[in-house]
């Protein structure tokens, strides 16, 4: 990928400012620090392979003992001859770059096809080799991987070349995750050898690495690459903090490490318990030490590392946990179980912290050897997710252990996690490179994912902090424009409700597909797909944005022409008394009713459940017997509870009019949290039609309840 060599301090490529000797302790399985000329150019030929890739072959055979190395030899020969004469800015032959990238991937456990593509990853971009030649010599898979990591030409794309190149790589990653594996290894070697660049160019590359590549490495679970990339970026973008951290680590390395004694105590406890385990001291990398110092202030001697306990089986992890919590003082707040609930990037481990007899607190990671491999190498350890490989370190074995199997025994495809599927979906709606680039960085800044359950039994993967609006667009796409509300865990909720991990959400859509989202929704969304869809609709419907879709029309009151009737069939036991139906509860046949004599000798009729009845009785007012006579037209007050949307008032009044009911008065209250209350006083031609009228009003999109009024209507 056209990386210029030399270290940030101007030394040889294999000497880097973040090279902390303490990090080598306990990192024997995957150590990416063994690069340099000695690792690339061995003194003797190994099995007919060129000396330059001897160490690649050794690293590859460590994971795949029966691997066919002939294809690697052919790929090396093509790469070396095509790059011959090209030099890096450090003065090294350019072939050292693809070799270094390939060695990184080999030590992580990448399979042969990935290594072949890695050796060739710059040939199409920087030499006369064509994709057709790669396809003819190495097959479609290698050709696809090489094409996926090949940059777009600035001559054709100008300033958009970088974002469009990343878009191309991400789309290719959606079909084959190995594309991004090669890109991450490529960027790691480029960052290791960034010193000859101008400071401003170093900073620009480091910022892109921080904002895009490091989050991608985290999501793909490649911790071995992510941690070193973080340290290299830290050294360039925060040199003062980096030097402080480096001095602290150097001072700690010169003193006795209390973790050594704690590790020995842990080994003794586990031996006595009969648990076969390997206990290692895992020094923190620079950024991790910096984060601990920033969060907790002054560092303790045990803050510079953690204990790593490796066992054979999942059950042994919990056995180790039990022994540690029994024989040491546990720090319960530090316990996390990522075995029962793996992270979305395949990571599995038990995290805890224990205090020794002298009060030193040590963080402990407990995992199996297989979990450790996946934790370090992530998707690189999965190889080709579509072709199960045989052997003790096969991709299928690791994948099945890490992510389980789907129903029917079909293996879950780890190359299309929820975050990647969402990214591939929203990028199609972001044709503008600037929008794509800024949205990509914002999307990758979300560092935690939740799972919510749909009402139909499916699931949705969303970033932490996502709302019902995000869930609506994740499930329904552009149909979510007409979303009017939601039920979360069975209860009505506003669209702004933030969802939690494990919530069940049911989205309520209006039948009127012409309705659109409210500008207020933009304040609730966390997913780029939802934001792009809402913004696109608002830009295309400027007239619709003038009245927020989540709010009803302003409060208004209208009065119909129907006059009040005196009794509406109510017969009271007071001779010649004027009979009135109470406006607070608007009784109609066949409601159970009672009456009270009021000023002037009139009798007011209430429903028996009306609060006014209890109040009258508490004042000692004697009730009057009321019966219904011949039924006829009557007046009633109904309250409609709804999610606010445009045209709601018009649709409700149209439904009422269609039922042949006259509107005496109507009141629309100001909206509250996207909900609105409509109160209607209606004149019915026949009280028997009330239940049907209420059903008709409930069928209006957005209305979730219609009830009889229990309080005086606001005129």
On the 0-100 scale, what is the average pLDDT? 78
Tell how many strands the DSSP assignment holds. Answer: 22
The major beta sheet can be summarized as: 6 strands, mixed
Low-confidence region ranges: 1-49, 386-415, 545-566
- Cα end-to-end separation: 74 Å
Using only C-alpha atoms, the radius of gyration works out to 35 Å
Gross morphology is elongated
User: What structural class do helix, strand and pairing data support?
Assistant: alpha+beta
- Beta-strand residue percentage: 15-25%
Tally the helices: 27
Helix fraction bin: 40-55%
Quick structural gist:
The protein is built from 27 helices and 22 strands. With 715 residues, it is an alpha+beta fold. β5 (350-355) and β6 (361-368) form a beta hairpin.
What does this protein look like?
By secondary structure, the protein is an alpha+beta fold. Strands 1, 2, 3, 4, 5 and 6 form a 6-stranded mixed sheet that branches. A 5-stranded mixed sheet has the order 8-7-11-9-10, covered by helices on one side. The longest helix has 21 residues, at 199-219. The termini are far apart. The relative contact order is 0.06.
